[in-house]
Amino acid sequence: MAQNLEIYTNIEDQKYAKDTILIYKIFDICIICIKDGVSVSQEYCQFKKGVIDHIVVYTDENMNDGKISQLLRGSSTLKIDKSNCYDNPDIKVVFSEKGFLFQARFNNCESKFNDTMTMFALSLAYREKMEYYLNLTSSIIDEENYHDVIDIKKDFYVFNLKYFFSNPVHYNYQQKHAIWKIIFQYYDILEQHQELKIQIENLVDILHIEQNQEEDKKEKIKENKRKKSK
């Protein structure tokens, strides 16, 4: 995925401190990351994508599960286990529906945090892309305009071939690979993808049925004309 990822940041100016804004541009999706609660107007950002309402916490404090849950969910209801937590001697990463917490247990873990942030941004981009396609298919169903589905299917398959990978991390990077596996499963990315694929295929089937029905109508009209001409 490296060739499909661009990361932009702001320079220091009168309004914002340096590196307080990060923009992850992944295929055609842009994710804006705003550090330390900085408020950014759309005019300031090069990309007009709306800010995703997620929280990311970097800390070297040894927190218990209750405090982590309060930070990520605002309550003590977040269950932390192997399904949403990577727990290693050097770092601990906990994911929730609203974001993740990265706990550094040694110094110089910033690069690992940045890698985790990039993978999380990728998951957001995948999820937004799935939502985009689902909205397209829903509009087709509502408007009963099935002829557009072939173009959507083609675009979806091109996207799959170019960008969609269940494992975009090289196996040599075992820690990143393990964290991505948690992200991919916890946020049900594959399930969303499969659901979308089935929905598009169902729409294609409907289109073929409609085309066949239209052909049958034309044949009946031709047959009736032949009968009348005799």
Describe the protein's architecture and organization.
The protein has 230 residues and is of the alpha+beta class. Helix content is 49%, strand content 16%. It has helices at 65-73, 110-143, 149-163, 174-186, 189-229; strands at 5-9, 21-26, 29-34, 55-59, 85-87, 91-96, 99-104. It is elongated and about 90 Å long. The model is unreliable at 42-51 (pLDDT under 50).
Q: Which stretches of 5+ consecutive residues score pLDDT under 50? A: 42-51
**Principal-axis shape:** elongated
Question: How many β-strands, per DSSP?
Answer: 7
The amount of helix comes to: 40-55%
Task: Give a concise summary.
With 230 residues, the chain is an alpha+beta fold. It contains 5 helices and 7 strands; from the N terminus they run E-E-E-E-H-E-E-E-H-H-H-H.
What keyword list fits this structure?
230 residues; 49% helix; alpha+beta; 4-stranded mixed sheet
Question: Could you outline the blueprint of secondary structure elements for this entry?
Answer:
Layout: E1 5-9, E2 21-26, E3 29-34, E4 55-59, H1 65-73, E5 85-87, E6 91-96, E7 99-104, H2 110-143, H3 149-163, H4 174-186, H5 189-229
Parallel strand pairs: 4-7
Antiparallel strand pairs: 1-2, 2-3, 5-6, 6-7
Helix pairs in contact: 2-4, 2-5, 3-5
